[in-house]
Amino acid sequence: MILKPRLEDIKIIGYYLGKIILGLALTMLVPILIGFAFGEVNPALDFLISIEISLIFGLILTKLCFTEKDLNWMQGMIVVSLAWLAAMALGAIPLYLSGHYKSYLDTCFETMSGFTTTGLTLVQDLDHLSYAHNLWRHLGPFIGGQGIAIVALSFFVKGTSGAFKMYVGEAREERILPNVIHTARFIWLISITYLILGAFSLGLVGKAIGMKTVNAFFHGACVFMAGFDTAGFAPQSQNILYYHSLLFEVVTIIIIIAGALNFNFHYQLWSGNRKEMLKNIESRVFFISIMLTFFITAIGLNQLGVYPKAIVLFRKGFFQLISGHTTTGYMTVYARQFITEWGNLALVALICAMGLGGCACSTAGGIKMLRIGIAFKALKEDLKRIILPEKAIVVQKFHHIKDIFLEDKQARSALLITMAYLGLYLIGAIIGMLFGYPFLDSLFESTSASGNVGFSCGITNAGMPATLKLTYIFQMWAGRLEFMSIFTLIGFFVAAIKGK
Amino acid sequence: MIQNIKYQISNTKITNQNSKILNFGLSFCILIFGFWNSCFAQPISSTELINNAKQYDGKIVIYEGEVIGDIMKRGGFAWMNVNDGQNAIGIWVNASLVKDIVYTGSYKALGDRVEVTGIFNRACSEHGGDLDIHSQVIRKTAPGRQVRERLNLGKRNLVIVLLGILCLIWILSLLKRR
Lengths: 500, 178
Prior knowledge:
Oligomer: heterodimer
Distance between the termini of chain B: 132 Å
Radius of gyration of chain A: 22 Å
Order of helices and strands of chain B: HEHHEEEEEEEH
Strand order of the largest sheet of chain A: 1-2
Number of domains of chain B: 2
Shape of chain A: globular
Number of strands of chain A: 2
Number of strands of chain B: 8
Largest sheet of chain A: 2 strands, antiparallel
Strand content of chain B: 35-45%
Structural class of chain A: mainly alpha
Largest interface: A-B, 50 and 48 residues
Structural class of chain B: alpha+beta
CATH class of the largest domain in chain B: Mainly Beta
Order of helices and strands of chain A: HHHHHHHHHHHHHHHHHHEEHHHH
Helix content of chain A: 55-70%
Strand order of the largest sheet of chain B: 2-3-4-7-6
Largest sheet of chain B: 5 strands, mixed, barrel
Number of helices of chain B: 4
Number of domains of chain A: 2
């Protein structure tokens, strides 16, 4: 029997949702300050309007639904999934007011793409966008990469039990520190420390390659935020191609790899435990996967003679590959070049890399290296069971921060989520094909949206069908939250209709 | 004997003249035909260049658009990015040719519009495989300008109205608490 949700459930969900909206509203102060600093009055007004609307919604929800009760699992999951929708709807307002988008749906697409660290864009005339709006495009991934609920967890939520449920709801299961709020704060500490270092480094590189000082450091901050959070937005329409610089590409690669690594690795590195990187199942699988997919990409590019020299092939091929594998989506080629020049083999390798994604508990999307590692360990265990005598006891171990014995529960969970991702990639591809796009193009774009990558082969543009925009919005949302919160939300609505 | 030598010399002169004319004619023909094959006299859009990059690779093209962002000087050369309204393409140019560029496109400026004539590279081996144009000639077709921002009164009024609503909710919530 399905139980109908009680009014109390709705009140608790509303209250915590309101808190998250209030937290989100405060983040809009940053672009307002930037707007006034650069003398951009109208963009600053856009953010003032948005912050006021967000505060009104947040206040109404927290006052009407006021409660002192903590969240249970179901409520926590629903709060998270609704929070991302609310963030999309409210975060889209300033972008819509900028006049650089053809519809409100396009701005919702852009905001969801930003918050989920995807990086697919529908912006028009990006090269004339204000500093304030451009910063907001890049701040979105920085907030979403760490987790929208984590913003609230870090500053507004008192109870650790409810906080943990929201933390898990945002596809983060690992606790770096015993207390989840301390974990959330540590994630922010890492991100802000790297932001300062990364933005400064990119700013210096920008200066060295001939950019104006203000632009160099502004671009540095933006590219860092979207790079470390594996989003792939850039302040100019040419993405990373704009800079025409090997040095800029190298620094960007370092940043995106750092972003795709498990926050636990960063903690281990900060604690002086450098050996963890060598022993950990995730880092090993990540390394092997990068090598393998790059090898196939290189063969594909070489077969077609896409690039005139081996070094050029390496520079272009490796940048796109690592950008795709870390689910960043930074590009140094034009979108259509993937289809017109790269050929099927290189494209398939890139799709595989995008689908596999980065590490768990990072800002990266995709299936995640930990799950791939566990799936392989489970396969190895099963093969051993078949090969070895029946009486033999087969035990499989893997190292992830500590030595862990592989259990069926872990293997089942890893395979279930992997299956869900593969299903999502395929569904998006089929919907793309329904609109007349070729299979490989559709699969490429669908994997990019679901894996929160941000590469485009040209399908994503303001003129694409609204249904496809909605499909990609759903894919980005589901891919970022790793399904559980969304399944719970769907279950909640089903219970509201059918429950007794 | 002397006459014979003179005749030979004059004959050689005629042969030299003929060969010069022949050489000139041949060179002219090669140049014309070559140019016909490798140069596109009309400006080509960025989409056309990107989508058919193999067709235009290594050929002289004319590309027109607005200079955007930074002009990044690299030694005696510079990179400037030119947007034709569809995409932006990087132009590798002698630094002396960009001296006339006053405005580059941004939120507060419309960049100078330029017509670039140069060699199109699908995957430039000199620049790490970038799709670019190595410019030979740049002509400013329209000057850019500063964009003066006018205060949007509608937005300002909306800010005030929303602020009023926000204050009202705040006051009501305080009253409710009491």
